[in-house]
Write a structure and sequence with these properties.
heterodimer; A: alpha/beta; 6-stranded mixed sheet; 4-stranded antiparallel sheet; 11 helices; B: mainly alpha; MetI-like fold; 17 helices; about 70% helix; about 0% strand
Chain lengths: ~280, ~400
């Protein structure tokens, strides 16, 4: 297919879907099958072809960094994984469940994936603690005490244990983003999606958020991160994907991408952001 | 001149902003007489105020015959509600005072001074010279009930939360039960005897409390993805908004009986209530829609990404923010609705305005329009202003405008 991206993957959707539920989760748990599989994903906005045949496989515990120029479809792609965006062609399978129009599948996948947004998107009318405990109480049906205990532990983990009763508007951008990470982690997701988590932050606050993300990566969380923080990528990424014009142009380990990029477009882009 | 040392700051010291102080003369000079044309403007304005105020005051205190209001006070307040049953209205008021006191203690524990001021109002009413002894005693009981509720709330703030909510939810049915009565426990008082301020308040309170949830449902319906629900909501809102309230009231009075079988009879007050509710709901829906549309898309997305379903997202994330943002508009609509209830006088109900015309028809009070209309205008103003003041306090307490 001429429109397909350069990068191909080994696993096909049938490899996963033909297995029984138990076999799927066992294989995903052992790292034999990917926890996220995107197969020939296409998306159009009207007549504009945003995603042009994306193939990607992510195994449990991997940290993936997605980068590329603006408008290349990287944010759109990561948002298809928890169905904040629809796609018109191809297949996405997350933790053994195929994303379809079926709302039950969508809600199941959203429970297993946490997402961190560029604009934080905290709930301004709720306190930090309520922001974090809302979903565990309402969706996972945890008792309030358990949810609050977990929330306080998470706030400690992201380094702001004493802000629990403040409102988001009273916190700095860096603190808000760390609350957003804690809020996503409170649902105990298997996969974390980060959509440009540091792009809206002042320079001195970027580090405090990246530190939390590095710690999370080292703890074994499966992460897909859209970012231009190349230091972060070099430190923790297992693989990097370069997006351009709705396609994956190149993928590889940080070592390969930084020291020996094969494609000219990758070289050009890297030379522009690594000044 | 001395050379001043630059001011020394110590760590953590807070400098107060410079304050301006004026004598009375200084203030007058700065604000009213700073230049010659400001002085002229001040003098002209003073003269206009004098020219308007002088005849008004002379009329109010020397010429006006307020007897018409004093004699008919009960008619203005409750219409033809039987005199031996008025204790039921007082009972409803005392319960309201108790509930309000409790709510004040739990939700606004810090606003003590304002609370004390509000408590003075019933006592001031009790002190008015032309009020009957029974009413005086009842106003004192009213104040005591409010104080009692407040004390209970201060004493047991946590434990009284649930009783308060129950009281708030139950108040409405209790009110209707007390005012209307259910044989054989309480003597039935037919709605054609309800009148005056009592009827005005009932129409407004019922209109507000029922149209509010209805309006929210219509606003959500308008945004729904289900085509039938959406079509119905849009049609309903646009048709009602295209028709004046008087027309809706006439329709309710004259057309409703045509559609219903002859053995079903709905009385006039209920028909007017239905008309007001249906009318207000359409406007409420549009106000709520404005609030819903102002919520950024990211709020929906964050809620969905956490696994909340559409209903949970609406109830916990979107509606609380949307409603908070439109409090000023909604209160404005409540005030308008309160005043619009006076239109029921046109379809023959004896609300505050309707009672006014019957009072003016009494042979001994012919020609006292000024006194009567000024009096009811004052009543409308007091309640409207109270609502607008309360909404501003509520906005501050909820932090509307801050994010």
């Amino acid at each position: 297919m001429s429109e397909s991206s350069v990068v191909q993957v080994k696993t096909t959707p049938e490899d996963i879907l033909n297995l029984s539920e138990e076999d799927r989760s066992a294989a995903i748990e052992q790292g034999k099958l990917p926890i996220v599989l995107a197969h020939e994903v296409h998306k159009w906005y009207g007549n504009f072809h945003v995603l042009r045949g994306i193939n990607m496989e992510v195994f449990k515990g991997e940290v993936i960094v997605i980068f590329g120029p603006s408008g290349s479809g990287k944010s759109t792609f990561i948002r298809t994984i928890n169905r904040l965006e629809e796609y018109q062609k191809g297949k996405i399978i997350v933790d053994g469940t195929e994303l379809s129009r079926d709302i039950r599948n969508i809600e199941k996948i959203r429970m297993e994936t946490g997402m961190v947004f560029q604009q934080f998107n905290l709930f301004p009318h709720l306190t930090v603690l309520q922001n974090i405990t809302l979903a565990p109480i309402q969706v996972r049906k945890w008792p309030k005490e358990k949810a609050e205990e977990v929330a306080l532990q998470l706030l400690k983990r992201v380094g702001i244990p004493d802000q629990a009763n403040k409102y988001p508007g009273q916190l700095s951008g860096g603190q808000q983003q760390r609350v957003a990470i804690a809020r996503a982690l409170a649902m105990q997701p298997k996969i974390m999606l980060f959509d440009e988590p540091t792009s809206a932050l002042d320079p001195e606050m970027i580090k405090e958020v990246l530190d939390v993300m590095v710690e999370l990566a080292e703890s074994g969380m499966t992460m897909l991160v859209v970012t231009h923080e190349m230091g972060f990528a070099r430190a923790v990424a297992d693989r990097m994907y370069f997006f351009d014009q709705g396609q994956i142009v190149e993928s590889g380990t940080p070592e390969e991408i930084f020291t020996n990029p094969k494609e000219d477009r990758t070289k050009l882009f890297l030379s522009q952001i690594l000044h | 001149m001395m050379n001043r040392e630059p001011e020394q700051y110590t760590e953590g010291e807070v400098l107060a902003p410079p304050t301006e102080r004026y004598t009375i003369l200084g203030w007058l000079h700065k604000n009213l007489f700073s230049t010659w044309y400001y002085s002229l403007l001040t003098l002209v304005t003073l003269y206009i105020v004098y020219a308007i105020l002088k005849p008004t005051l002379i009329w109010a205190f020397q010429q006006a015959e307020w007897q018409v209001v004093v004699v008919n006070l009960r008619l203005f307040m409750v219409g033809q509600y039987p005199a031996d049953q008025i204790f039921r209205i007082w009972l409803a008021l005392h319960l309201l005072a108790f509930t309000a006191g409790l709510a004040w203690a739990i939700w606004l524990p810090k606003a003590r001074r304002l609370g004390a001021f509000l408590l003075l109002i019933p006592l001031a009413l009790a002190a008015l010279p032309f009020i009957s002894t029974t009413s005086k005693i009842n106003w004192v009981i009213f104040a005591v009930a409010a104080l009692l509720g407040w004390a209970l709330g201060i004493w047991q703030p946590r434990r009284m939360r649930r009783p308060l909510l129950i009281l708030l939810l139950a108040y409405f049915p209790i009110l209707i039960f007390l005012i209307s009565g259910v044989e054989p426990i309480l003597k039935l008082v037919k709605t054609n005897l309800w009148g005056g301020l009592l009827l005005t308040m009932l129409l407004a309170v019922v209109g507000i409390t029922v149209s509010f949830p209805l309006g929210i449902l219509l606003a959500l319906g308008r945004q729904s993805k289900l085509p039938i629900v959406k079509l119905f909501s849009v049609l309903y809102i646009e048709i009602i908004r295209g028709v004046p309230l008087v027309t809706v009231l006439f329709m309710a009075q004259l057309m409703l009986p045509l559609f219903l079988p002859p053995q079903i009879k709905i009385d006039n007050v209920l028909r007017a209530m239905a008309g007001i509710i249906l009318f207000a709901a359409a406007y409420m829906a549009e106000n709520v829609r404005g609030g819903l549309q102002a919520i950024p898309k990211g709020q929906h997305e964050a809620a969905w990404a956490l696994g909340l379903n559409g209903f949970q997202t609406m109830v916990f994330i979107i509606l609380p923010q949307a409603l908070r943002n439109v409090i000023p508009v909604i209160v404005g609509q409540f005030i308008a609705l309160f005043k619009d209830t006076s239109l029921v006088a046109i379809v023959g109900l004896l609300d505050l305005l309707g009672i006014a015309s019957t009072v003016l028809a009494q042979p001994e009070f012919i020609g006292h329009q000024r006194e009567v209309y000024l009096f009811i205008a004052m009543i409308y103003w007091v309640f409207s202003y109270a609502m607008s003041y309360a909404s501003r306090r509520l906005e501050v307490a909820l932090g509307v405008g801050e994010r």
